[in-house]
Amino acid sequence: MKRYLAxxxxxxxxxxxxxxxxxxxxxxxxxxxxxxxLFENDHVRVFEARASYxxxxxxxxxxxxVFIGLETGRVKMRLGDGKPxxxxxxxxxxxWMGDGIEHSWEMISGKVxxxxxxxxxxxxxxxxxxxxxxxxxxxxxxxxxxxxxVILENDHVRVYDARGAKxxxxxxxxxxxxxxxSLATARLNxxxxxxxxxxxxxYPGQALWMENPEHSWEILSGEPHVIVxxxxxxxxxxxxxxx
Length: 243
Known about the structure:
Layout: H1 27-30, E1 35-40, E2 44-52, E3 56-62, E4 65-69, E5 73-79, E6 84-89, E7 94-97, E8 101-119, H2 140-143, E9 148-153, E10 157-163, E11 169-174, E12 178-182, E13 186-191, E14 197-202, E15 207-210, E16 214-222, E17 225-231, H3 232-236
């Protein structure tokens, strides 16, 4: 199986946010034909951006987010301070845009297909250090690190890349609340802690919010490729009482 991953920090292509007093309007308001909200809750807003050459998008802004690329393309951008920048897009490309970004863009080649996970806890500076998060002893990265490969972590998110091939099994493990983004087609037989089996199909562009899932699994077909964004604000939030 071909394995590739592009994890690119924002400074690698000079995407600095301008210090202008007033940013442009939100991307979903300015350009809703390209930026489509998939779902939103107390912790995240997740949108999909799609376009093909020779599309363009006017000046707009994004709050802090995790960028996940699904297609190959090249985009010429104009940043909020007027500086130009080129961005090459690739499947599996992951970036943390911790300051958000203000820009316009035009397609030079290929396609734009991006899933963006906007993290609401990162929008405003926090006074002092954020409390650490705790994970269960059977955390996925601990139990099965060959599949669950951490690619970035900060105060707001832990992001990992998960891959496997037909026949691969993963023992019972847990995840904190997360955004699941699939880049490939596959079928898995998942076993839940109570012993029930569930068939789970993945496909490119699939994006889901999952609350503290726990399971084992076996890959029945395909080669799943998933980017998982664990959202730490959901781990820090008090749990609702059930009694």
